[in-house]
Structures are given as C-alpha cells and as structure tokens.
Amino acid sequence: MADGASVREWRPDFRLDLSGVLAPLRRGRGDPTMRSAGEGSAIWRVGTTPDGAATTRLHRRPDGTVVVQGWGPGAQWALDGVPALLGVHDRPEEFVAHHPLVADAARRMPGLRFGASMRVWDALVPSVLEQKVTGTEAWRSWRELCRRFGDPAPGPAPEGMRVPPTPAQVRAIPDWEWHRAGVDLARRRAILASAAVAHRLERACDLAWELGGEAGRELLRKVPGIGVWTAAEVAQRVWGDVDAVSVGDFHIPTVVGWALVGRPIDDATMLGVLAPYAPQRQRAVRYVEVSGFRRPRFGPRYSPRDYRAI
C-alpha cells in the first residue's frame, strides 16, 4: 500500500484493452481529470463520488490482473466500481457484424468493451460543453473550469490533476468566469440547470439498469438544454449504453456513411443503416471510429469560435 492508498486487485475473465475501455472518459490530451504516460502505462483518474472526491491509479499486469490504488474519501466507492468501469456488464459476444469494416474491427479489437463509470455528473458537464462546438473549444473550457474551480486531486496524483467541480462549485461560478472559460449562455444554462438537480440525475444510471438505457436517457432529457445527443454521450460512458447513438453529431453520420455505404448520409439514414445492429447500434459506431477508417476530405475544416472574445 503506497502513500496510504486503498488497493484492489481484479482479474477479468475476458480480454481487456484497459486504455481503450477508459479512453471515452478522457476529454482531450490535457484533461486534468485523467492522465496516462502512454501505452502500457498506469492510468490516473480523478472524479466525484457519493462519498467525496477520489483519485485512482489503474495498472494492468502481464497476467491480466488489474491493480487499482485509490485515495480520497471516495476511494472505496471507486474501487468497488472497478469491474463495472472496465466492462464486466458488457456483452460484446452478443454483437453480430453486418459490414466487413465493422467485422474486421471487432475481430482485431476483442478487448474493446463499454465500461460504466456509474457517475452521471462527471460525464454530463463535459458533454454539455461539447454541444455545437469543436472538441478543441470544449476541452479548453473543461480544462479551465476544472483547474480554476475544482479541488486538487487527493493523494499523489500527477501534478495539475483536479477534481471536476461539484454541483455546488459550479453554481457559485460568476457570470464573467463562464465567459472567461469560453462557455456561451446556452451551455452555461444547461450546466446550471443540471447542477440544480444533480442528485436526482444520478438516478438515471439506476433507471438504466432497471428498465433499460432509454429510461435513463429520458430522465436526463428532462433538464432544459439536455437533448438526445448529450443524453447519449452521457449514457455511453455512465452505464455503458451500447445502443445510445449520438444523433445530431456534426461528424458521426458522415463518417458512418462513408465507412459503411460509401457516401455521406444524414441522421435519419444513419439510423436506418445501423438498424440491423439494434440493440447494439453504438457498438457498431464505436468500431467504425476505432477502425482506422478516414473519410474523404473535400473542403476546409470548421474553424473554432472563441466565445471569450464576444
């Protein structure tokens, strides 16, 4: 036990791509809530829990055992959730590929699973920040909010790691600080509305386990400013929703269209193409995203808009 850490060792009975499973939880290379030194290195995560903040360090031994150390008041909660986080509830063996590209990706990446972080708040804020802006813009805002309003990570975390701001901390952020972080009024309102009912929104995960993913997504969509896209982005990460397609995304229909039918398509057509994959449509999208496929580029890339200059 290092530096007073709580420790858990867990050996899954399935092939596990540790970095691949955790990758969706990371919001850009500079995310202050998640760090990794590279392939095969330990992965550090910082988050909120019902018991308080927690820092975890995850490392996979050559024999497949995952060793997890935890610090902070929420450490035990985080350690208890390790199997779910790493995809123990996922069932990729039930997936049937209907396109050669998807089949090839599934064959090459048997350890890629959908994990469940079991924590709505930590996924909701960055997902709202990613609404209708580039990833670069959203990740910059996320970094600034965490660094300036989140607490330092418990334990011996790498320098600069921070706990995501809690609902109370978010509600205390002055208007001009939101502007300084590059967050426009619409996204600010959605985050503040979520913060006001954050304790209720955690129930979405329970509903998803009890009644299915759509029930959890429906609860999230009751918050003004939380639509289908944002609810799906949260569901994919929090309860490992393998059928929650991010409808309304700027890039996904085009990438899926070129990869699976050889042309750009809209959301409605994409859902038709993915229909044979139900109830694992998002798993098919994930395989497309990690397959290495690159769609043709015909025009200039979208330029980020700096809301701090408005």
From TrEMBL:
The keyword DNA damage applies. SUPFAM superfamilies: DNA-glycosylase. It comes from the Bacteria. This is DNA-3-methyladenine glycosylase family protein. InterPro entries: Alkylbase_DNA_Glycosylase/TA (IPR051912), DNA_glycosylase (IPR011257). The keyword DNA damage applies. Keywords: DNA damage, DNA repair.
